[in-house]
Amino acid sequence: MLRYAAGEAAAFDQLYARHRGGLFRFIQRQCKERAQAEEIFQEVWMNLIKSRERYTATARFRTYLYTLAHNRMIDHFRRQSGEPLRSGGNAEEGPDVIASLPASRVDEPYVRVLSRQQGEYLLRLLEDLPAVQREAFLLAEEGELSLGEIAEATGVNPETAKSRLRYAVAKLRAGLQGVIA
Amino acid sequence: MNAHPDDFSMSDELRDLSRAYRDATKYEDGLEPSPALDAAILAAAHRAVTSKPQAVLPARQQRRFFDHWRLPLSIAASFMVGVFVVMQFVAQKTEPEMPMLAQAPQVPQVLPEPEQPLPSPAPEESLPSQNPQFAQADAMKFYEVPAIADTSARSRSAAQSPRGAAKVQMAEASQPLESSALIAETAPATLTESADVDRPLESNALMAEAAPAVPTESIAEDMEFANAAKPMAAMRKMSAKRQNPQDWLEEIEKLHREGKIKEVRDSLAEFRKHYPDYELPKALRDLEFDSKAQPSR
């Protein structure tokens, strides 16, 4: 990004090729319509282009990019229907939700290889997650961000980010458990 | 997914879920941006680097900027044009005065000294102000500085005044004084005086040749005016005395003592016209009697 800000246009091509897929999926999984996802995707990159001269390398570039995307998503949801992306933590979740979930079954073969039908079911479970938990999971999966980076990108403290991610993982696992079992 | 040291203890659970998520993603189609969108974003990125940042602005914003400033700019431009037209109009109104000054009648340069100075304390200034012709010349002195007129104005003034024509000849004859002579054509009154200081003999001779009838007539008129003014002042002085017969008689007696018999008799005759019954002193009575007896003397 610094090379692009210095005027090297080819550096942007590399950045774009590296992050286009993950960013688009991050956006698409939170928007219902593809046209909206494309619009938001384009606006994120345009904001990046416009703010290239103000960019400082204080964090990883992907953290910066997904912060832009997070802010743009918040604007989008606010315009549509109030505040679906609440940043107030996970008050709706009780402290015993995770404890009630089944234990990890990593070594079981159905977890290692999902069928197409099961994959679609997992994605449906992801859609049904609360927005902040879904976002935390997608930032971890598509953006490959750590807990600290998720907290930075979403503007919350690391504990909140950790809690959101844990709830997301637990719910997804619980859903899959029911289907496969 | 990343395995950061600070990540939570359920990293194993995340790992297998992550694998499951990636497997699920494989079955999905169309989760990539379209090629057209890719091309548009890349083109915008390249444009932003190769051109000015303003080029990234949508055309709609540029139009909005122009629409916002169109009215103020139009008003400002109209105001400037109006001011320019008014200034041009004023400038054209003042310009025609200059040729009129160049065509004004010429003023004689060398005036003969009057035989007796006039009673005014500054005769050089008061005499022209009493004569309308000189007053016009005085007015011209105040306009002599911007007298650098164009060639047509110079030829016009030269043709209308013989002195101007003479100045042109003088300027042609003396090359070093060309510039001063050209200026002198349009401002003859004072600038020729400075030229005369430089070359007094030559210029005075030329001026004498070139200044014929018009100045001479005006000089004669001025002399008549000056001569007429002198007895008028004496008459005013006398009329004040005639209001008092005693003072008048004392004046006549004074003339008598000085031996001016003729003036005494004339004054007595005048006195009698105003005061027929007034009693005269004895000496004057005798003279009055003699003047009646010998009226023709």
Helical percent range of chain A? 55-70%
Low-confidence stretches of chain A: 86-92, 103-107
Q: What is the number of E strands of chain B? A: 0
* Biggest pleated-sheet summary of chain A: none
Structural class of chain B: mainly alpha
Strand content of chain A: under 5%
How many strands, what sense, and barrel or not for the largest sheet of chain B? none
Output the structural class of chain A.
mainly alpha
Residue share in β-strands of chain B: under 5%
Give the assembly state of these chains.
heterodimer
Number of distinct helices of chain B: 15
Number of separate helices of chain A: 10
Give the H and E element order of chain B: HHHHHHHHHHHHHHH
Q: What are the main properties of this structure?
A:
heterodimer, A: 181 residues, mainly alpha, 10 helices, 69% helix, globular, B: 297 residues, 15 helices, 0% strand, rod-shaped
Describe the structure.
With 181 residues, chain A is mainly alpha-helical. Helix content of chain A is 69%, strand content 0%. Chain A contains ten helices and no strands. In chain A, helix 3 packs across helix 4 (61-81). Residues 86-92 and 103-107 of chain A have low confidence and may be disordered. Chain B has helices spanning 11-26, 35-50, 59-94, 97-102, 123-130, 132-142, 151-160, 162-173, 178-186, 188-198, 200-210, 213-242, 245-257, 261-274, 282-293. The N and C termini of chain B lie far apart (156 Å). Chain B is mainly α and 297 residues long. Chain B is rod-shaped. The longest helix of chain B is centred in the first third of the chain and has 36 residues, at 59-94. Chains A and B meet through helix 2, helix 3, helix 7 and helix 10 of A and helix 1 and helix 2 of B.
